[in-house]
Amino acid sequence: MTVGVKICGLTEERGLDACLEYGADWIGLNFFAKSPRYVTPVRAAELARRTSGAGSVCVGLFVEPTDTEITEVLDSVPLDVLQLYTSLERALSLAQTFGKEVWLSCPVSSRADLPVQCGVQRLVIESRAPKDASRPGGNGLTLPWDVTAGWTAPAPWILAGGLTPENVGQAVRMSDAPAVDVASGVESAPGIKDPTAVKLFIERARSARIA
């Protein structure tokens, strides 16, 4: 089974073009203002236009968004997926309101935290943020990868948090993850993707089950 790859937090064309050239499955645009990878709807629309016909799916990341915030983004950005940091109940409500595929971010600390039910299309499994963190995800923290080994997931899922070209192969093999999500692990600076790192990350994720 081919491992899916999402590159998140795109802010500039060079990094985005590398994601498209090397075949990332999903392109992530971050609409959380406290993130160093935040993009305005106007900037996101410019980036999203470059993905037209390229075969990659556009994912918009939101943290506890209001309906108005999502509407303002969708008015100009052709998102395919809403990735949400919120409750399952709120995620289901937003899915019904906007008619979009929804992914729910699920921070975990141990195997007991792994979800056993799910009404959305995909789960993003990552390490729980520190109590003093300014954002619920994207903190570069690595989850103990064996936490998910053998887990019977209630929906398709993605492993996120602290992944790099150097560790993604081991992470896939230990976690049994069907897909992976990276932001800071392929950057030369916050929000600035390194094309060489993007290439290596995608190649090593895809070959992890062969090695």
From TrEMBL:
Ranges in a coiled coil: none
Domain N-(5'phosphoribosyl) anthranilate isomerase (PRAI): 5-203
Organism: Acetobacter aceti
One Pfam family this sequence matches: PRAI
MF (Gene Ontology): phosphoribosylanthranilate isomerase activity
Gene: trpF
Enzyme Commission numbers on file: 5.3.1.24
Catalytic activity: N-(5-phospho-beta-D-ribosyl)anthranilate = 1-(2-carboxyphenylamino)-1-deoxy-D-ribulose 5-phosphate
Record pathway: Amino-acid biosynthesis; L-tryptophan biosynthesis; L-tryptophan from chorismate: step 3/5
HAMAP family: PRAI
Protein name as catalogued: N-(5'-phosphoribosyl)anthranilate isomerase
Alphabetically ordered keywords of this record: Amino-acid biosynthesis, Aromatic amino acid biosynthesis, Isomerase, Tryptophan biosynthesis
Membership in a protein family: Belongs to the TrpF family.
GO annotation, biological process: L-tryptophan biosynthetic process
